[in-house]
């Protein structure tokens, strides 16, 4: 199985191969020696690599995770080939638009637009209350409101999709 | 001595107080909001009284409810901790009027020190050096420009009722005054309901150094040396240490004496902290915090004094057991705050459920926290989840010990400030002591690239295993599927908030 792991602006193309009960990992097409064990099913992981031992903690979901290693915290996203194809197709279909995500956890105070509304870059789309302040979430570009994923009163975690815009290239 | 005290607080500070009280044979009454029904402080206390309500205003800030809880349980004293009602003079007065001892300073001291202008006036009268500036608020930008001539640029405009960095503007030239004055006044009005502003000299490369003092009810007082808290962001401290790496013995002694002078001037009782700004060898009074500070453990570590115990003894009327000449600095201590925030994303708050929790251990490592596994971290309360404190025979040893302890610690389920603290401790400017209160702001928090390949491979294998488990065994998948687990927690969290009427 092929997987693309993104950390910051760097991408790590990986392949996990299982044959005769043996698991092999290729990074950038090259074998990557690793002894991998899970201490529990909650993301406590022990790995041996190049003669050294590491304890990691992995949190998140299959697409987005945070890994803690020796006090450092890594944010990463993962896609397999199918997910990559789907996300590329979605990007194309949205024609330069895309999902607007909550940059911080908060409460949706008010949604200012409706699905199908034509909006301009910078136009306020909804109000998100976070850190005791009301923040206007504005359109990243001109387009049409494709989907509203939240409603007023809803609590959203950081990274939650709020609104999906369809860009002008999709029309 | 008291037989029973009430702790009008929550979180790690409630636990901190309960621990000492238990060691003194005193029973503890905890109070808790609906959101804190399973919190550790309700379990560690002898008696737990529900306040009901969820928001601070409905619970930990509701004086009537807390006084009723104290009366109902026969508590003889109230410890307010920090935050909430700890610096509320009206509450202190009502506690005493109810015949209950107040584990804190006299109400007049709280009132005078609680206002920037009145405290400055009192300190100038007492001969305490203050930052050059005005004692009275200025009316408008024109008056501010006139006043600025005698103070000298750069000028800091500050809100009279201020705190937390709100309503502060730096003015380097007279022609910047008008717009800075207008925005600062607006911010002060909206944040504190009080638009009054005053001016003072802005100090370049300042360091935040504070002195711990302790006074009894009989006029005896000692200082317990300094804490350096220059590693801060928007006036929120992240790393604190004692002693400071920049003070020489003479300055330390001078600061201690000035802090005692400041406390004497307001007839102080109990534990308090006199904060100074240090710049180029000079130091100036900033403010006095009339309560126990978050960072008090570093002082405890270098002096061997349990500050909470001393607070309780003072409130019970006992004369101070400590004499200045007996107090010594032993070694070095560092504290790191564990906040639920993402330092690599602008320190935005982070919420979630603490799935994983691993505490560091080993010699001279102290963890003051109210975290527990499966605890929900929301937005209702302060994002500080706890504090990690270490001691070492010298500063280098303490830094190495803290780095080691942070590497052992894991708080899974929310982002925390720990990686930011680790990056500070690894930075050569911190190690060499060459920093000021702007240092933390200048850092971009990002993990080292050297582990990225390993992290990417491990995460991929974890995902691979999780997905395979789901296809092979539907029941096991229900237990182990991390995506579903996360979703459930978020929606359950939202539902509880709805049930509590917090969302409409």
Overview of this protein structure:
The complex is a heterodimer of chains A (171) and B (504). Chain A has 171 residues and is mainly beta. Chain A folds into two domains: 79 residues, Glycoprotein, Type 4 Pilin, CATH 3.30.700.30; 77 residues, RNA polymerase II/Efflux pump adaptor protein, barrel-sandwich hybrid domain (OB fold (Dihydrolipoamide Acetyltransferase, E2P)). Chain A is 8% helix and 57% strand. Chain A is built from one helix and 17 strands. The radius of gyration of chain A is 20 Å and the shape is elongated. The two termini of chain A are 35 Å apart. Helices cover 38% and strands 23% of the residues of chain B. Chain B has 504 residues and is an alpha+beta fold. Classes of the chains: A mainly beta (171), B alpha+beta (504). Chains A and B meet through strand 1, strand 2, strand 3, strand 6 and strand 7 of A and strand 16, helix 12, helix 13, helix 15 and helix 17 of B.
Could you name the key traits of this structure?
heterodimer; A: 171 residues; mainly beta; Glycoprotein, Type 4 Pilin; OB fold (Dihydrolipoamide Acetyltransferase, E2P); 2 domains; 9-stranded antiparallel beta sheet; 8% helix; elongated; B: 504 residues; alpha+beta; Rossmann fold; D-amino Acid Aminotransferase, Chain A, domain 1; 4 domains; 8-stranded antiparallel beta sheet; 5-stranded parallel beta sheet; 17 helices
Topology:
The complex is a heterodimer of chains A (171) and B (504).
Chain A: E1 2-7, E2 10-19, E3 22-27, E4 30-31, E5 35-38, E6 44-49, E7 52-60, E8 64-69, E9 72-80, H1 81-93, E10 98-101, E11 106-111, E12 118-119, E13 124-130, E14 133-138, E15 143-148, E16 155-156, E17 161-166
Antiparallel strand pairs in A: 1-2, 1-9, 2-3, 3-4, 5-6, 6-7, 7-8, 8-9, 10-17, 11-13, 11-16, 12-15, 13-14, 15-17
Chain B: E1 4-7, H1 11-23, E2 27-32, H2 40-44, E3 47-50, H3 63-73, E4 77-79, H4 89-97, E5 101-102, H5 107-114, H6 116-125, H7 141-151, E6 155-159, E7 169-171, H8 177-192, E8 197-201, E9 207-215, E10 221-233, E11 236-242, H9 249-265, E12 270-279, E13 282-289, H10 296-303, H11 307-315, E14 332-339, E15 341-342, E16 348-349, E17 352-353, E18 356-358, E19 365-369, E20 376-377, E21 384-392, H12 395-408, E22 410-412, H13 418-426, H14 428-432, H15 452-472, H16 474-480, H17 482-499
Parallel strand pairs in B: 1-2, 1-4, 2-3, 4-5
Antiparallel strand pairs in B: 6-7, 6-8, 9-10, 9-12, 10-11, 11-14, 12-13, 14-21, 15-16, 17-20, 18-22, 19-21
Helix pairs in contact in B: 4-5, 7-8, 12-13, 15-16
């Amino acid at each position: 199985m092929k997987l693309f792991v993104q950390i910051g602006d760097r991408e790590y193309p990986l392949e996990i191969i299982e044959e005769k009960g043996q698991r092999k990992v290729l990074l950038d097409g090259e074998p990557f020696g690793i002894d991998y064990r899970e201490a529990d099913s909650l993301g406590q992981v022990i790995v041996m690599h190049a003669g050294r031992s590491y304890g990691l903690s992995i949190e998140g979901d299959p697409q987005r995770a945070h890994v803690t290693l020796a006090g450092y915290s890594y944010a990463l996203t993962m896609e397999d080939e199918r997910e990559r194809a789907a996300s590329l197709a979605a990007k194309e279909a949205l024609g330069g638009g895309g999902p607007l995500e909550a940059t911080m956890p908060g409460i949706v105070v008010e949604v200012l637009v409706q699905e199908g509304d034509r909006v301009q870059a910078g136009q306020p789309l909804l109000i998100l209350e976070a850190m005791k302040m009301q923040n206007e979430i504005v359109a990243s570009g001109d387009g049409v409101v494709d989907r509203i994923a939240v409603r007023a009163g809803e609590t959203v975690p950081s990274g939650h999709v709020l609104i999906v815009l369809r860009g002008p290239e999709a029309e | 001595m008291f037989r029973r005290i009430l702790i009008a607080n929550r979180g790690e500070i409630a636990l901190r107080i309960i621990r000492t009280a238990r060691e003194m044979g005193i029973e503890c009454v905890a109070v808790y909001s609906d959101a804190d029904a399973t919190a550790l402080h309700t379990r560690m206390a002898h008696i737990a009284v529900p306040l009901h309500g969820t928001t601070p205003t409905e619970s930990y800030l509701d004086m009537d409810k807390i006084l009723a809880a104290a009366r109902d349980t026969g508590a003889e004293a109230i410890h307010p901790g920090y935050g909430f009602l700890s610096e509320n003079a009206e509450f202190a007065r009502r506690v005493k009027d109810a015949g209950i001892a107040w584990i804190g300073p006299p109400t007049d001291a709280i009132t005078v020190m609680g206002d920037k202008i009145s405290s400055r006036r009192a300190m100038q009268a007492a001969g305490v050096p203050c930052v050059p500036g005005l004692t009275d608020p200025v009316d408008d930008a024109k008056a501010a420009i006139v006043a600025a001539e005698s103070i000298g640029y750069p000028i800091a405009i500050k809100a009279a009722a201020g705190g937390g960095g709100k309503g502060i503007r730096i003015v380097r030239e007279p022609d910047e005054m008008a717009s800075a004055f207008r925005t600062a006044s607006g911010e002060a009005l909206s944040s504190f309901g009080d638009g009054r502003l005053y001016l003072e000299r802005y100090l370049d490369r300042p360091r935040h150094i504070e002195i711990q003092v302790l006074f009894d009810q009989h006029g005896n007082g000692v200082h317990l040396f300094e804490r350096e808290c220059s590693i801060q962001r928007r006036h929120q401290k992240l790393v604190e240490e004692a002693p400071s790496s920049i003070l020489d013995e003479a300055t330390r002694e001078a600061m201690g004496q000035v802090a005692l002078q400041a406390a004497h001037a307001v007839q102080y009782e109990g534990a308090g902290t006199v904060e100074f700004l240090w710049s180029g060898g000079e130091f100036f009074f900033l403010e006095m915090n009339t309560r126990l500070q978050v960072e008090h453990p570093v002082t405890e570590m270098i002096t061997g004094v349990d500050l909470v115990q001393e607070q309780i003894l003072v409130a019970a009327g006992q004369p101070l057991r400590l004499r200045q000449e007996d107090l010594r600095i032993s070694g070095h201590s560092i504290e790191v705050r564990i906040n639920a925030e993402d330092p690599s994303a602008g320190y935005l708050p982070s919420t979630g459920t603490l799935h994983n929790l691993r505490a560091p251990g080993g010699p001279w490592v102290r963890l003051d926290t109210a975290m527990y596994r499966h605890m929900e971290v929301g937005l209702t309360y302060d994002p500080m989840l706890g504090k990690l404190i270490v001691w070492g025979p010298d500063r280098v040893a303490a830094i190495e010990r803290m780095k080691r302890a942070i590497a052992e610690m894991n708080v899974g389920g929310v982002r925390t400030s720990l990686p930011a603290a680790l990056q500070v401790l690894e930075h050569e400017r911190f190690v060499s002591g060459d920093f000021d209160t702007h240092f933390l702001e200048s850092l971009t928090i990002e993990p080292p690239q050297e582990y990225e390949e390993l992290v990417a491979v491990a995460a991929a294998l974890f995902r691979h295993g999780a997905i395979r488990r789901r296809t092979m065994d539907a029941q096991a998948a229900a237990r182990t599927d991390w995506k579903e687990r996360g979703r459930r927690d978020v929606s359950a969290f939202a539902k509880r908030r709805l049930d509590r009427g917090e969302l409409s």
